[in-house]
TrEMBL record:
GO cellular component terms, A-Z: plasma membrane
Keyword Transmembrane applies: yes
Transmembrane parts of this sequence: 21-45, 57-85, 134-153, 183-203, 215-235, 256-274, 294-323, 335-358, 378-396
The name this protein goes by in its record: Gluconate transporter
Keywords: Cell membrane, Membrane, Transmembrane, Transmembrane helix, Transport
NCBIfam families: gntP
Similarity field: Belongs to the GntP permease family.
Subcellular location: Cell membrane
A single MF term (Gene Ontology): gluconate transmembrane transporter activity
UniProt lineage: Bacteria, Pseudomonadati, Bacteroidota, Cytophagia, Cytophagales
InterPro entries in alphabetical order: Glcn_transporter
Recorded topology in the membrane: Multi-pass membrane protein
Top-level taxon in the UniProt lineage: Bacteria
């Protein structure tokens, strides 16, 4: 490629990718920030803890991680829930790792499988997948992945002891919002997107009802409405000034800026692969393979994840490479998104920031972190692939 064409490809890929994603990612970060800082996430955690009771507390942790993980990015959700993990462990005389693994599994699954997280949203844009269907399929696959990697695998690591205590949460609200308000604002965008995905296939196009549901169910509009609702119910109605709420949003946008650059860079790389015909060449190599395109997509993402560490980078890089093969094979774009998302979570180790976050918060050795965190991520990844392949069989029948 000439230098001029190379620059054009980079600009086109960067712009095309971020053009449809920026608002969703930014609004998602804003929603996550106010859900966390207002105490809504803490209220959800405490309420589920009381609801499930001591005997089923691990399942409360799983459900809390899943609900909190939908609007919050992984790191934000982890830092927010870690005090709860140590409190539950102390009260029930459990190992903190035994309680922490289910929480981390739930957060990891939502991060890798479900919109509005950046990876799944970016992949959906690349493969032109329906975000509503991706959310529904991802939620179905998420359940066995979380159960196997969380409560069940947690039984095998419950003897791992922590050398220290938790880092205190920065969230200390004077007055927590109610459980109903907290839960409603956290899952509001998911409800709108899911309702649209479920109802639209059964409605007549160009009717008022169809247009309204299509409008509200659009991920961009759903996230915008969720932020507006959260601004009032978790901010203004709780005595915060508009300036205080806007300061929170300014911070959230700053925190997500690097993620946006990574997504844009992944889109630029994808476009260079397409315009230089490199992707077609790689696709031609794999075209003779007897493996399912979904397995190939998962494998590509898993290899890049092992090499580079970042789940988002692994997902976007593998997407650019595998795109021509998927297009020629006529595979479900939604299942492709989930297959790559599962592969991008494969065996997190020392080159992944998530590995070190888990290690340092639980004060573990390298080997203890591999035995707990890395194996948990591998179970999530493999279970995700199995779920994708089973869904493919169900949809084909």
């Amino acid at each position: 490629m000439s230098a001029e064409n190379l620059i054009f490809s980079i600009q086109k890929g960067f712009g095309d990718t971020l053009g449809s994603l920026t608002f969703i990612v930014v609004f998602g970060a804003m929603l996550g920030k106010i859900v966390g800082e207002s105490g809504a996430a803490l209220q959800i955690s405490n309420s589920l803890n009381r609801l499930f009771g001591p005997k089923n507390i691990i399942w409360a942790v799983v459900l809390t991680g899943f609900i909190i993980g939908i609007p919050l990015f992984y790191t934000a959700g982890f830092v927010l829930l870690i005090p709860l993990v140590f409190t539950i462990a102390a009260v029930g005389n459990f190992s903190p790792v035994y309680v922490g693994i289910p929480m981390a599994a739930a957060l990891s699954v939502t991060h890798g499988f479900l919109p509005p997280h950046p990876g799944p949203v970016a992949l959906a844009s690349i493969f032109k997948a329906d975000l509503g269907l991706t959310l529904i399929y991802g939620s179905i696959i998420a359940i066995p992945a979380i159960v196997l990697a969380g409560p069940l695998y947690g039984q095998f690591v419950k003897n791992i002891k922590c050398a220290g205590g938790p880092v205190k949460s920065s969230v200390h609200p004077l007055e927590l919002p109610s459980f109903k308000t907290s839960l409603f604002t956290a899952i509001f965008p998911v409800l709108l997107i899911s309702i649209g995905a479920c109802l639209l296939p059964f409605l007549t196009k160009d009717t008022i009802v169809y247009n309204l549901i299509s409008f509200w169910g659009n991920p961009f509009i759903a996230m915008l409405l969720a932020v507006i609702a959260a601004t009032y119910y978790l901010g203004i109605s709780k005595g915060k000034s508009v300036k205080e709420v806007m300061d929170l949003y300014n911070t959230s946008i700053t925190e997500v800026s690097l993620i946006l650059l990574i997504i844009g860079a992944g889109g630029a790389f994808k476009q260079v692969l397409i315009d230089s015909k490199s992707a077609e060449y790689l696709a031609e190599i794999f075209r003779g393979s007897t493996l399912s395109p979904l397995v190939l997509a998962w494998t590509m993402a898993a290899i890049i994840r092992l090499a580079l560490g970042s789940a988002t980078v692994a997902a976007l890089t593998s997407a650019g490479i595998i795109l021509p093969l998927i297009q020629s094979a006529h595979v479900s774009p939604e299942l492709t998104v989930l297959s790559i998302g599962a592969g991008s979570l494969m065996f997190s180790h020392v080159n992944d920031a998530g590995f070190w976050i888990f290690k340092e918060y639980f004060n573990l050795s390298i080997m203890e972190t591999i035995r707990s965190w890395s194996v948990m991520e591998t179970i999530v990844s493999v279970t995700g692939l199995a779920g994708v392949l089973l869904l493919e069989l169900v949809l084909a029948s």
